[in-house]
Amino acid sequence: MSFRTADYVEDVSPGSGTLPPRAWYASSDAASLSLNGSWHFRLSPTADAEDAAFAEPGYDSGGWAEVSVPGHWVLQGHGSPIYTNHRYPFPVDPPRVPTENPTGDHLRVFDLPADWPADGGCVLRFDGVESCARVWLNGTDIGGFKGSRLPHEFAVGQLLRPRGNVLAVRVHQWSAGSYLEDQDQWWLPGIFRDVTLLHRPAGAVRDFFVHASYDHVSGAGTLRVDSDVPGRVTVPDLGVDVATGEPVTVPVEPWTAETPTLYDGVLATEGERVPLRIGFRTVALADGLIKVNGRPVLFKGVNRHEWHPRRGRALDRETMRADVLLMKRHNINAVRTSHYPPHPAFLSLCDELGLWVIDECDLETHGFTEQGWRDNPVDDDRWTPALLDRAARTVERDKNHPSVLIWSLGNEAGTGRGLTAMAEWIRGRDSSRLVHYEGDLTCRDTDVYSRMYAAHAEVERIGRGLDGGTGRRRRLPFIQCEYGHAMGNGPGGLADYQRIFESYERLQGGFVWEWIDHGIEDERYGFAYGGDFGEELHDGNFVCDGLLFPDRRPSPGLIEYKKVIEPVGIDGDGAGGTVRIVNKQDFADLSAFAFTWAYQVDGETVESGDLPVPALAPGESAEVKLPPPPPAGPGETQGTVRAVLAADTAWGPRGHVVAWGRFPVTARQMPSVAATARPVTGERRITLGPAAFDARTGALTAIGAVPVTGLRLDVWRATTDNDDGAAWQTDTRYGLLWRRLGLHRMRHRLDAVEAEGDALTVRTRVAPAAREVGLATVYRWTSDGGRLRLTVSVSPEGDWTVPLPRLGIRFGLSAADRVRWFGGGPGEAYPDTRSAALPGRWESTVDDLQTPYVRPQENGARADVRWAEIGGLRVEGDPEFWFTARRWTTEHLDAAAHLSDLTPGDTVWVNLDHGQHGIGSQSCGPGPLPRYRLRAEPAEFSFVFSPLG
Ligand code: GAL
Question: How far apart are CA 379 and CA 365, in angstroms?
Fold first, then answer.
């Protein structure tokens, strides 16, 4: 006997019984009924463990569970989520799927509202079901579909009755479609987007296509709305009233992401009125550049997966709006909808608030890379109908959004004829937009040369046109559809990328990977990641690589990105008393912004005011005179200029800071301590000014009344995801090399304790077991009676072939909570993530200094600290230092897998670092640039301690 799962699950076809794809819209007057809510639910272990009797009216589902629709059953207590990056979590044997195929039967009984019209037809729409559905209405099998993040509609009018309609949906986790949906994300089966019943009056609109272009030379917009049911199009603000299919040209304000002007219109057919939100804009490939309304654009983008820490990819409107607002408030101007069309409401928000969109088709076959792309569905004609179906469902659904500039064929699907077929179909249907796909280096099907994670030097070569490549590619503009891998602490090097993007016309920016960590709220761990659900195959915390934490709190990476992509360049020149202002926008002048100036002495603002700045056109710059700085005194003086929103906007309040520049006016005076006190050696103790030391070991034990433990050289940090690097990286992965060398288990040998003259000198050698390399380290203590100065001298010995993770001292304080400092803040910074660190006076608790990376790792350093006060001590740096304090040791942090593993001890561990190694992006990209490596070389640095109060 042979056995096969129900054919529709494993056949390569997109489905059967569904209506042709069309534009997604909300009617003004046709009735609709949301079928979201609580559904009866039964989970089976295989695709056909149960027969279809449940779909029959009268079936008793009384004993079933309930799930929320939209939702994923694995996030509602039935089964578990699985995370893999690109490996299929089932044997690769397309189009077959495992017999173990979790299958969720969903049942919903509904009445039509009393006023539901009796005439016309009805359409049942599913906006997203993963991965394959079979649908019955009132016992009739109406068909099935695949294509998880795409809409599917059925004509159901003839089946409906006023009361007691039984809608039964069988959803299979795995199907042939799963082979096309191998995106790097959780596998989350379920009806995860809206289910809606739409009344279709006689003469209703079916599909329509709004063509609204803008002629930047004449300033006119041309509108033509094609509709397969004829009607009229009115746009009152433009005095437009034309028949469908008829073009009309009128003067308009164009739509751009910076100035998202939308005109409200109506498409009226005999049976229906549909609201239109029309944005006039023209996208073109011209002079080898992506131009909108005649001007090249620079994408300051992010890749956005849909994510909510409890609801997975079932996003509500508020969450979508929160995403767009957060993007706008952080200067982001573009989104790639990695790697599938988002909920359609998200695109409406992009239209309304202004974001450029690359709309990506729901397609990825990355797992075939494991077999050298053999049997890749995109190069197999049997799959082409499914690919074309996906392309059509994407384009037809989203074609009326002005924000969508570019269609993307999908992600990481190798190369093949199927992709070409998709591109050809898309061009035939919509010649008004460009086509993107990253996976084919020849660019045969695309209008843009796109790459992911290319290193800075290569991007620069591409900018200069020195990248070789075939004819077509050479003529295309360049974007990084993914760069700056925001996994854990990082990404580093964003400012360096931005400088390169801004230097070469061909480079049209990029999209940081990615917007949000896909951590799942979990009472065991805080947030769970791959492996936390006992998955057989998984890719750990590679799923947490966003600029937002899972709960949408901005990570330091987002704060850094906001600074790096500011729409206004502000470069102060303390000496000349001027500031250079550059309008870095592509379309708008500076009139939306107000400017302020201020001077700070030792981090405290002493003078401030408004700064008149001309409304520079995009690309223009001006030197603007500043009021004179305050008279020079002993303090360090800095100037600050800020650009803020001049008025409330749709996405941010008046006064919201969009850009700032901070520049030195007078330099800081380094702390000096006259070595007037002498060390006094007792039997067990040596005292020097306010400090006490162990006479035998030379270890500091107290400063004044403040006990200090374990002060010594420290070179280790809990490696970041970017230090560890991705397994496939061939480049140097320092996290591994450091551990191999033993930098996490350095031994401290005491060579001498010398209390002579005005100094206590402690000589040591710090080195790992089994290695000949070491760091000769001398601590030299002096005092003026009240303050204590420590100078640390470090001389590397042996052949150091790796940089150091950090170089500084650490010590423990027994009672510390609040921290005040003058230095970079308010958030963390590292050598290549320090753009947003604003020198000033800051205050925090020790707990609030921690950055809650979902997988714990080095975090929380404050840059350029002149002085800090903690636990009854004040520390001044010569030179400035990196300040870190936490309630656990670096070793604990290093060992933790989840935030829940970190339990505060009694001691606060403080690190004062002279140097930190850069962060880079090697969790999926290049490591830190050479200039951010912390080379093992002779170093000397000092701290001045004084007891407070
Ligand atoms: C890319 C891929 C993304 C994601 C990223 C790493 O190769 O397109 O989906 O996997 O790498 O986080």
Answer: 11
Q: Is the CB of 360 under 6 A from ligand 1?
A: no
The listed CATH number (2.60.40.10, 2.30.29.30, 2.130.10.10, 1.10.340.30) that belongs to domain 208-284? 2.60.40.10
Position 457 scores a pLDDT of 98
Closest CA to 274 of 586, 101, 27: 27
Q: What is the percentage of the chain residues whose pLDDT exceeds 90?
A: 97
Query: Whose CA is closest to atom 4 on ligand 1?
Result: 184
List, for residues 798-827, the tens digit of each pLDDT value. Answer: 999 999 999 999 999 998 899 999 999 999
The alpha carbon of residue 326 and the mean position of all alpha carbons in its chain are separated, in whole angstroms, by: 11
Three-state DSSP at 607 gives strand
Same fold, 208-284 and 572-666: yes
The fold of 288-563 is TIM Barrel (3.20.20)
Per the residue annotation, which of 482, 535, 876, 880 is the catalytic one?
Answer: 482
CB distance 329 to 321 below 8 Å = no
Per the annotation, the verdict on 270 as an active-site residue is no
d(CA 228, CA 240): 20
The whole-number pLDDT of residue 4 equals: 55
Averaged pLDDT, 304-318? 98
pLDDT band, very low/low/confident/very high, at 633 (cuts 50, 70, 90): confident
Ligand 1 centroid from CA 452, angstroms: 8
Task: Tell me what the pLDDT averaged over the chain comes to.
Answer: 97
Which residue, judged by its Cα, is nearest atom 6 of ligand 1?
924
Q: Percent helix, strand and coil across the chain, each rounded to 5?
A: 15, 40, 45
Give 543's Cβ-side CA count (13 Å radius). 29
The token pair at 182 is 């191998």
Catalytic, out of 396, 412, 535, 828: 412
- 5-200 has which CATH code? 2.60.120.260
Determine if ligand 1 sits within 6 Å of the CB of residue 513: yes
Given ligand 1 and candidates 408, 412, 438, 517, which is best to mutate, with the most ligand atoms within 8 Å of its CB? 412
Is 412 one of the catalytic residues? yes
Q: Would the CB of 545 count as within 6 Å of ligand 1?
A: yes
Question: Would you call the peptide bond into 189 cis, given omega within 30 degrees of 0 as the criterion?
Answer: no
Nearest CA to ligand 1 atom 10: 184
Look at ligand 1, atom 3, and give the residue with the nearest C-alpha. 184
SS (H, E, C) 357-409: EEEECCCECHHHHHHCCCCCHHHCHHHHHHHHHHHHHHHHHHCCCCCEEEEEC
Which listed CATH number (2.70.98.10, 3.40.1260.10, 3.90.226.10, 3.30.2310.40) goes with 684-746+798-934? 2.70.98.10
Ligand 1 mutation pick, 83, 181, 184, 339, max ligand atoms within 8 A of CB? 184
CATH architecture of 572-666: Sandwich (2.60)
C-beta of residue 407 within 8 angstroms of C-beta of residue 395: yes
CA 483 to ligand 1 center in whole angstroms: 9
Give residue 246's identity as a one-letter amino acid code. E
924 lines ligand 1 (CB under 6 A): yes
Q: Count H helices, E strands: the chain? A: 12, 58
What distance in Å separates the CA atoms of residue 752 and residue 412, rounded to the nearest whole number? 60
CA distance 173 to 539: 20
What atom in ligand 1 is closest to the CA of residue 481?
8
Specify which residues 794 forms β-bridges with: 777, 939
Q: Is the CB of 184 under 6 A from ligand 1?
A: yes
Q: How far apart are CA 736 and CA 732, in angstroms?
A: 9
- The answer to whether the CB of 481 is under 6 A from ligand 1 is no
In 3D, which of 570, 598, 577, 571 has the Cα closest to residue 658? 570
For atom 11 of ligand 1, which residue has the closest CA? 924
- Sorted by where each begins, the domain ranges of the chain are 5-200, 208-284, 288-563, 572-666, 684-746+798-934
